[in-house]
Amino acid sequence: MTPRFHTWLKWLAWLMPDHRADWLDAMQGELAAITNADERREFIWGCFTVAVWEQARSRRGLHYMARACGSICLIAASAFGLYHSARLGDDPQSALFAQTVSALCFVYIGAALLLMISLRGLKIYAGLGFCLASAAFIYCYIVRPFSANLSAEFWTALSMEAAGLMASLFVASVYLGWFYRRV
Amino acid sequence: MTRYRAPSKSTCLILYHLCSQPAYGYALMKATGLKSGTLYPILMRLTDRGYLTADWREPTILGRPPRQIYRLTAQGQIYAKDTLSPQQVPLSFLGVAP
Predict the structure, then answer these.
(1) Interchain pair B41, A27: CB under 8 A
(2) Rounded to the nearest 5°, which phi and psi values hold at B78?
(3) Nearest chain A residue to B60, by CA
């Protein structure tokens, strides 16, 4: 078995509910016995659907789904806001988007801070999320006005990247608590 | 007493194959033609209900992880007999020489 497939299945550990952890070990054992690459891929995909379904069925899974939906909404809202704030220039609508996105940045930073305070053993990850979210915030909203002569396309691309970075960091820092317990 | 709905065709297929002999997950996939995404939830459910046991087997090839082998419990055998029609149950399972 190539390490790549093995790693993919290992990553499912953070999706599988705690009470099904031994099933993931069983799946890993079976995966090692499969020699055909296509079959392995198919097997991993099946295991992924099992993990998602089992997570959704468990009580914690519903909580997870709610958090995931909330995070996706935040990501979508921030990406949308950043995209438009970069495109619209100096009109009032742009300012509104910029304010919305700034507020979202504060949400990310606040969430990272809360994680730093509340979760034992996760402070390093939450701290990293906090630093990066803060850096993205500073970079996008303090540096940007002084470089207004750059093209809108440049800022659009940069903003999208920043939004993606912040959103993924936020989601990662939120779920690291869960992931940490499983590793 | 907890009542469960009638088993699906896939569950019957798995029960049928486990009637004959214990099997590994991959072997069950091959024998039944089910994908892992269908097979494992059924195995989990059957294990939760006490119809199956999953025992760890040490690997035959060095460096490979241990595998789980699935076998029907006494309760599972009764369930399989009740669930599968007489034509479906392997003769060996009923104690009759084929």
Answers:
(1) no
(2) -65, -45
(3) A33
